[in-house]
Amino acid sequence: MDFMKWLNSLDELLYEVMSWLLFFPITLWRATVRPITLMAEVDRQQELPENEQYASLLSPPLFLALSLLLAHAAAIALGETDTIIASKRGLASLINDTTTALVLRVVVFAGFALCFAGRLMRSQRMPLSRLTLRLPFYEQCYPVAVFSLGISLGTSFVTAPSGTFHVAGRALIVASILNFVILETRWFAGRRRCGYLRAVGNVAWALTEALLLMLVIGFLFTR
What we know:
- There is one protein chain.
- The longest helix is centred in the first third of the chain and has 32 residues, at 2-33.
- 78% of the residues lie in helices and 0% in strands.
- Helix 1 (2-33) crosses helix 2 and helix 7 crosses helix 8 (196-220).
- It is mainly α.
- The model has no long low-confidence stretch (mean pLDDT 84).
- It has eight helices and no strands.
- The N and C termini lie far apart (51 Å).
């Protein structure tokens, strides 16, 4: 009986993992080409029964995690050495394999989604709770995933031995930053129903908070 349960669990797990191969590029395409539309889709998905949510695309946190997994795999393929795994200083001693390093990367970039979602809540003077924060956080996971993928791949290209990759890496980093800032400005302007100048101010504030959070985490894991 236990063996049959294990087989059924394996069947579901295998199907779920293999479906990622199809729905990850679909979600990536939509997050890159029509990000605002995809972010608005989160509202509709949350209204559906739990077993019907995200049937035709990946859920936001899963998409973010898989994006960083792809970037991590690309870094390994390019021969990049994970400095956190190699370092034994501070909390870096807890990161001793690629799995824990990947979890740390997910936490760091999820911090961007958290900061931008929290900034929206504060700017709208809405009560901050785990329930009210969930929707904007999920919305933010899509653009943050594309941003993290571009930054991570660009960094890997820049540090690659071949000089051909360096220019492409720098271009990808710049393009990812510009695309992220422009997208977030549009998102804040639409959600706040305000002008772009005020939206840029909110984006700058949230980005500063996210970078400070990243610096704090980086300090803890390198000192």
